[in-house]
Amino acid sequence: MVEIMHMRHKFDIDTHLVEGLVLDHGARHPDMKKRVENCYILTCNVSLEYEKSEVNAGFFYSNAEQREKMVLAERRQVDEKIQKIINLKKKVCDGTDNNFVVINQKGIDPMSLDLLAREGIVALRRAKRRNMERLVLACGGEAVNSVDDLTPSVLGWAGLVYEHVLGEEKYTFVENARNPHSCTILIKGPNDHTIAQIKDAVRDGLRAVKNTFEDRAVVLGAGAFEVAASQHLKHTVKKTVQGRAQLGVEAFADALLVVPKTLAENSGLDTQDVLVGLQVEHDKGNIVGLNHHTGEPMDPYLEGIFDNYSVKRQIINSGPVIASQLLLVDEVIRAGRNMRKG
Fold first, then answer.
1. The whole model's pTM is what?
2. In the 8-state DSSP scheme, what is residue 246?
């Protein structure tokens, strides 16, 4: 699973892959560490704050001692949850240089944060649900909904957790996981336009990889497939049909050459010279594509240039359908004009 995050910071060349997770918020206690290494990660969805009852109720007391007892009773349930987390931290971290990080989907009140900070625990609250799902994939462990019967087996692991402050925004990086099944592509750029361009390019690349895994096949790129298909239609398929159908085969073959022509035009090359060179090589039995740097034919397999099979199939299937629809529109318009003349 891949997460795409962006920061309006530095330059586009600073975009990089984070083998872990980037959370768009930080710790909420000033005394918590900003950078910890060798961390056990507790991923939980537990309310660690005092919650008012849904039923309206009144409590009356006659002296200060009774009031203190009531306050302690209200806090007891939350404090017991915090103590269980602290006990687990002591169990796995005492006597070592390991640290402990709590990432909670629900809230953590200031008093609970203070108790955790005293024990050297870094705690993040109000984490997004999508981050909680990715966190388990990246760091391992399990997401728990209760602090009862906590064991070390529910903990994940990260080699480095640190907070990065950018203006008023805080980001928490969880990196160096042992066997991450989720990662983050952190996109950086000086302005929104650059970030949007990089984000589109990254998404296109990820979709291409996804299509490759689903198709279990690729097609040679750089215009090699289109030139080979065009030559096959002209030299082989055209001979198998009679009459006006040959014109349709030839038109379809010429239409396929739009791809190598466009590649040549975008590279500032002469389209006629490029097409002639590619067709000569294909007639010799060499499957070649266009090298847009030199304008010469090259082997796309050796250069590692491939296209998605599903994309090529969609182009071939949809091209004739769209052309037929456009021709049908022309026929309808022509028929309407003839009716008005009549």
1. 0.70
2. H
